[in-house]
Amino acid sequence: MAKRFVTKDGHRVGVGDRVWSANHLPWVIRRIAPMSGMPAGSPLWAFMDRDPSFPAQPDLDDTLFMAEEDFPTYLYRSHPSDGTCAWAGCRHRPWGAVR
Questions:
Q1: What is the pTM of this model?
Q2: Running along the chain, 99 residues long, what does each successive block of 10 average in pLDDT?
Q3: What is the pLDDT of residue 70?
Q4: What share of the chain is helix, strand, coil (3-state, %, to 5)?
Q5: How much of the chain exceeds pLDDT 90, in percent?
Q6: What does the alpha-carbon distance between residue 84 and residue 95 come to, in Å, rounded to a whole number?
Q7: Which of 4, 42, 52, 66 has a Cα at 20 to 30 A from 34?
Q8: Looking at the record's lineage, which domain of life comes first (predicted)?
């Protein structure tokens, strides 16, 4: 399937791509399809699993699904660098910071 979902940082993504949610969690897109039970031609959704390289957290969900129209609001292709990462409790430190 073509990379048809557009992220907040302007990249097109599709099945197999890693994306970051606005709350700084990594996800892998596993499937793009209409919601189960919906008729043909219904809006598409991305069904995602938490990236297995991210440590499991007991208080976090392992799956996420989002409509194509909401993708540009909540998901990034690259880790969000809006300056609020540590404040938001993000555990990912792409720049090598310890805490």
A1: 0.78
A2: 83 93 86 92 93 75 90 84 59 48
A3: 93
A4: 5, 30, 60
A5: 41
A6: 14
A7: 52
A8: Bacteria
| Amino acid in the structure at residue 1 | M
Pair 37, 28: CB distance under 8 Å: no
Domains for the chain: give ranges and CATH numbers: 5-76 (2.30.30)
Cβ neighbours of 48 (radius 10 Å)? 25
One-letter identity of residue 52: P
Q: Which residues pair with 76 in a beta bridge?
A: 20
Predicted pLDDT of residue 17: 94
DSSP letter, residue 46:
E
Pick from 77, 82, 17: which is nearest to 49 by CA? 17
**Type of residue found at 63:** T
Beta-bridge mates of residue 6: 12
Question: With contact defined as beta carbons under 8 Å apart, do 50 and 27 qualify?
Answer: yes
